[in-house]
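Reading group handout, session on sequence-to-structure problems. Before we discuss, look at one worked example. The prompt was deliberately terse, the way you'd type it at a terminal:

> structure DUF2147 domain-containing protein

The input record follows.
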Amino acid sequence: MIGALLLATLATPAAAADPKGTWLTEDGRSRIAIGSCGGALCGSISWLREPNDPATGKPKLDVNNTDAGKRNRPLLGVPIVLNMKPSGKPEQWAGSVYNAQDGKTYTGYITMQGASSLKLEGCALGGLVCKAQTWRRIN
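And the output record:
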């Protein structure tokens, strides 16, 4: 009986790493909180190392957004990871990513690299040009 229980435990596949949580970006300037939104995953800026514009002392704004109507919104809380759903590949989600540095949204991928690290990719031109960052889990 104990042998059968042990065998059943060993045969159970390991749980997939979960991207839900708070992540420190590669440059350490921000944290992104990823959670469920409907049937997908979404993430927004939850912390900035320098939340205020040094010139004005006021919160930094999404000034580079290609949508002029969003340029006055504070960066803190801006959605960065959008509509990520399982891609069909192990430990990978596909959706969109917003880059506040250039104000553009790209095809995006999250690939888990163990429980405490993920790779976030943003791609343009149908995947011909991609840039990636590795984020570290905070919680």
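Points for discussion. First: The first strand starts at residue 21 and ends at 24. Second: Confidence is low (pLDDT under 50) at residues 1-13.
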